[in-house]
Amino acid sequence: DFWGAGEANPMVSLSFLQGSEGEKPTLAHGGGQRSELEVREQLQRGENSHRCRECGKSFTSKSSLVTHHRIHTGERPYECLQCGKSFRESSALKVHRRIHTGERPYRCGQCGKGFTSNTELTIHRRRHTGERPYECPQCGKSFTRSSHLMVHLRCHTGERPYECPQCGKSFRTSSCLMEHRRIHTGEKPYEYGRCGKGFVVRSHLKIHQRSHTGEKPFRCQLCGKSFSTSSYLNVHRRYHSGERPYECGECGRSFITRSLLVVHQRIHTGERPYVCDVCRKGFRTSYWLLVHRRSHTDEKPFRCPDCGKGFRDNSTLTVHRRVHTGERPYLCCWKRHLAEGSTSSWICHLLTPEKCHFFHLLVVLSHIRYPWRSSPTPIHRFWPTGIFRSETE
């Protein structure tokens, strides 16, 4: 919060003031006591004469020092009568009231957008000029606001000063903590009128609206594909670049998103956090639990437009439609070793390329020991556990 809204503390001690009666003010840049003549000369030049005993910062007037000291005491004596939010300065309360009145007296000359304060207008203008005056000394990234730089620096320091009292999770900003706490309270203040769905964060509501409007403003310059969010576009770009920044510490396999890495790591840990409440079967992802539940309800929401057959998940429907189109996108390089029409000619297409080669090696071995056509069963004895790629197993 730029203005630091919160609870007011009506008791303020003025003992921190320097330059009050009976004391000689010290000057911040002098580092020690000055003579009255030096102090008077500096006052005439308009230099700082009032110094905060808490942090050493100095001010030209006592009133400025009093206002500053409220940062240390937490005092917020100016309260909004409409929402109860309180502020350190009357000017901050005046700007805040414009949120309730809708008044936006400061307008951008280029786009006409209005703002409640001149400070916000100045920051907005930097979007047009491209000015980013606040630069990170560690990585060179620049920002339009000093507060954004301050938050960014915590990425380097690892500082997360805002901790949730309920679960102990910590955050870089107070706003992130506030949004997180809604998970515990169940509060979803941002609701979409058309479908009634609620959201914890305003940005999530905006993204959801695009699912109704079909708007996809973020376009890939390489292939032309569009996305509803910039984060989806950033992930998509990794398919072109081949970048896989998230690597598994167990096996070294890398992924384009952190969420895919988390799901993959459950293979090593054996964790299956999504449990069916009917049969208690566990799954690595919520998606496969959703698909599994349809086996209990017999729900088949994915229908083939050609024959009307229903399926529990979209991927199975995609495979089925190749029956109608005749599409065979997966070519097996060992298929020439198999008798045409044999059972194994389609089994190999369910395997990864590495396992496909291994499977056909087993087929060859089985032919040596058992003729395939006379006794096809013994080959199943060679199948290793987990050879098939199936999340539902």
UniProtKB/TrEMBL annotation:
It is found in: Nucleus. The keyword Transcription regulation applies. Gene3D superfamilies: Classic Zinc Finger. One of its GO terms (cellular component) is nucleus. Coiled coil: none annotated. Belongs to the krueppel C2H2-type zinc-finger protein family. This is Uncharacterized protein. It comes from Geospiza parvula (Small tree-finch).
